[in-house]
Amino acid sequence: MRSTLSLVASFVSVTLVVAGCGTPVTPAGTPTSGAGGAVTISNCGRDVTVDGVPSAAVGLSPSQTELLLRLGLADSLVGQAQTATAPLSDDVAGLAADVPVLSESGPPSREQLLNAKPGFVFSPTMYEFNAEQGFASLEQLQQAGVAAYVATGGCAERRMSGTVEDVFTDLENLGKVFAASDKAAPLIEKGKADLAAVDTALAGRAKPTVAQVYLEGTTVTAIGAGIEYDIIRRSGGDNVFSPQDPQFAKFFAAQITPEALAAADPDALVFAVNSPEHERTTADFLKRTFPDMTAVREQRLIAIDAADTYPGTLGNVAVVREIAERLHPDAFTS
């Protein structure tokens, strides 16, 4: 499975490339319609134009495939990718049963993607377009007449300041591109209502301190910015790591020592996992390594699905409620 840590590494490489280009990022592009039904969207500092409703689309990760399915575009999908990294939700998985799988554990190669003959591809990050890894670059896709859209929170320069609500921008944009605004609107409305319900439940409550970490073996990576940071904020937690800390000043994640995590002594630990086994080994490590930490002593170890932290997924909204219920259980009792 493609791990959160590998996502961290990919964001580093992509951030360096984009920063060198000096291209500004416009995270909330406003779609505009032109003659003949053409739609232009500002995405990751560039214009994405489609001349009509795309009839052949590819979701470059399960999160993106799911969003396209929820917009009623199952018949337009000619490929899905990175299928082994996360399962599709049960209520839409059947819709993708006949959609060709282009790749399982990583992005499809340039040949695999272009052989599917897509007119539109939707990606969680810029990593999926890294030509050095053998993937189709944005330029190569443009030359082939393929429009490419990156989830707003996955734009390289947006990675530090991404928010849960970025997915609403994606839904608005995709609704315009696929003439599916009628499908996008209720998803946006429900997502905003779900967030508002959490805000109401948590109003005036004290915020427990929270550290969000990811473990690969005994390597501890902490999160101090980006969508993950905003998820904790929206969940009623007080992040112990923040963009103001030197190690997170330029990038949303950083490896830290166990001693640094112990010194922070958070009231709760949130950790992203890729499988039940990963959850078990992470919990075992935390209990064994930090027996005196408040989060461990008070049994506030909160595992979340790593896929719910990826840019461009409604999981960003759902996981806010999930964490909030663990941090403030009495706020949600009926």
UniProtKB/TrEMBL annotation:
Pfam family name, one: Peripla_BP_2
Coiled-coil positions: none
Transmembrane regions listed in the UniProt entry: none
Keywords assigned: Signal
Residues of the signal peptide: 1-19
Family to which the UniProt record says this protein belongs: Belongs to the bacterial solute-binding protein 8 family.
The name this protein goes by in its record: Iron complex transport system substrate-binding protein
Organism: Saccharothrix ecbatanensis
